[in-house]
Structures are given as C-alpha cells and as structure tokens.
Amino acid sequence: MASTLAWSSAASSSAPSSRPSPRRAPSLLVVAQGKVKKYRQVILTDDIAEVGKKGDTLKVRAGFYRNFLLPKGKATLLTPEVLKEMQLEQERIEAEKKRVKEEAQQLARVFETIGAFKVPRKAQDLVDIIKSQLNRDVDKRLVTVPEIREIGEYIAEIKLHPEVTAQICLWVRVEKVREVVWNADGGALERWMMKRVVEDQFG
C-alpha cells in the first residue's frame, strides 16, 4: 500500500496541470511629447495698427497667428527659406538704391557743368530747357528757382535724389540798355533804361 501511494503521488506530481496559466497584463506605451509652442516668429505682410508695419518680423502668440494673422493673410511664418528670400530682396533693393543715386550724381554733374543754356526765371522754364537740350524729363516739383528781386547771387536747385541736389549759380546784375520807342506820329524815340540781367555761372 505504501508503494502504491508513493507511485500515485509521483504520478500526480508529473501530470500536467489543468489550471489555466495567468494572462500577462497588456503593456502601456507612454510617449513624452514636447511642450506646445505658445509663440510664433512671423513676418507681417500688411500694416496692422498697434502691432507693426509690413515687413516687420515679430514674435506673436500662436493663437493670435492661427486665429487672426493667418486667416486674414496678414503674416507668414518666418522660416529659413523666407528669411533667405528677405535677405536677397534687401540686397536687390540696396543695389537699386545705389544705382539710382549714382545716376542722379552723374546727372547733377551734367547740370552743374553744362553751359549750353541760360538759367530760366521759373521752374517750368528749366524743365522745358532740360527736355529740349538733354532729352530728359524732370518733375517740376523737384526744381527750385529763387525769386529774383534785386542784384546779387542766387542758387537754382534740382532735387534729383534724396541725397543728391544739383545747384546752379545765378548772378543778377544791372546794365544800361538802349531802347527805341515809336510814338503816335510814327517817329522814333530813343531812350536808355536800366535792365536786370540774369546770368548763370558760365556767363
């Protein structure tokens, strides 16, 4: 009897267990996300009161950009590509400014050294002379001819550029002029009168 019990015990210990194996708990993957950006670096594409002017680069709240600037087309994100394009555009603008200034300086030298025409009494006269002599159009509003009231030296100016102004000197003198006047009887009368003469720096 003892041996039988021992065998049964051994057999029962080697028999496979009918109890189900415990299930493994599902693993939970946690991914840490970075903080949501609260600000955006933008460039304004239009003037906005109390915010900035077109072309300004600003740091604005993300909600302001998302809800106002972007839908209304008032700004764009300042990406490296946009920044590079801005730099290239600024270089083009500076080159054009330099070219215009150099052209104005050359034109000023022409106006200040040419002696082919007398300086006129009013701005429109000077504009007409420049057109006929040099085939160039000049805005009358850029021309300043001083009012001549007495003898002396005057300066006529042509504003060719914010940094370039052509200056032409005028000397006003008085000379005695002989004049012939015809009377009612057909006779000629000779008289002398004093006349103001305006000369430029070329005589």
Oligomer: single chain
Q: What is the C-alpha radius of gyration, as a whole number of Å?
A: 46 Å
Task: Give the helix level as a range of percent.
Answer: 25-40%
User: What's the story with the biggest beta sheet?
Assistant: 4 strands, antiparallel
Shape summary: rod-shaped
**CATH top level assignment of the domain at 99-200:** Alpha Beta
From the N-terminal CA to the C-terminal CA, the straight-line distance is 153 Å
**In what range is the share of β-strand residues?**
25-35%
Strand order of the largest sheet: 4-5-6-7
Mean of pLDDT: 73
Q: How many extended strands?
A: 7
Tally of helical segments: 4
CATH topology of the domain at 99-200: Ribosomal Protein L9, domain 2
Would you identify the CATH architecture of the domain at 99-200? Answer: Roll
| Helix vs. strand class | alpha+beta
List unreliable stretches of 5+ residues.
1-15
SSE sequence, one letter per element? HEEHEHHEEEE
Offer a quick outline of the entry:
This protein is an alpha+beta fold. The chain is built from 4 helices and 7 strands. The model is unreliable at about 1-15 (pLDDT under 50).
Describe the structure.
InterPro entries: Ribosomal_bL9, Ribosomal_bL9/RNase_H1_N, Ribosomal_bL9_bac/chp, Ribosomal_bL9_C, Ribosomal_bL9_C_sf, Ribosomal_bL9_N, Ribosomal_bL9_N_sf. This is Large ribosomal subunit protein bL9c. Residues 83-110 form a coiled coil. Residues 52-79 form the Ribosomal protein L9 domain. GO terms for molecular function: rRNA binding; structural constituent of ribosome. The protein is α+β, with helices and mostly antiparallel strands and 203 residues long. It has a domain at 99-200: Ribosomal Protein L9, domain 2, CATH 3.10.430. Helix content is 33%, strand content 29%. The protein contains 4 helices and 7 strands, in the order αββαβααββββ. It has helices spanning 2-14, 62-69, 80-113, 123-134, and strands at residues 39-44, 57-61, 75-77, 143-144, 152-161, 164-182, 188-200. It has a 4-stranded antiparallel beta sheet, with helices on one face. A 3-stranded antiparallel beta sheet has the order 2-1-3. It is rod-shaped and about 150 Å long. The N and C termini lie far apart (153 Å). The relative contact order is 0.08. Residues 1-15 have low confidence and may be disordered.
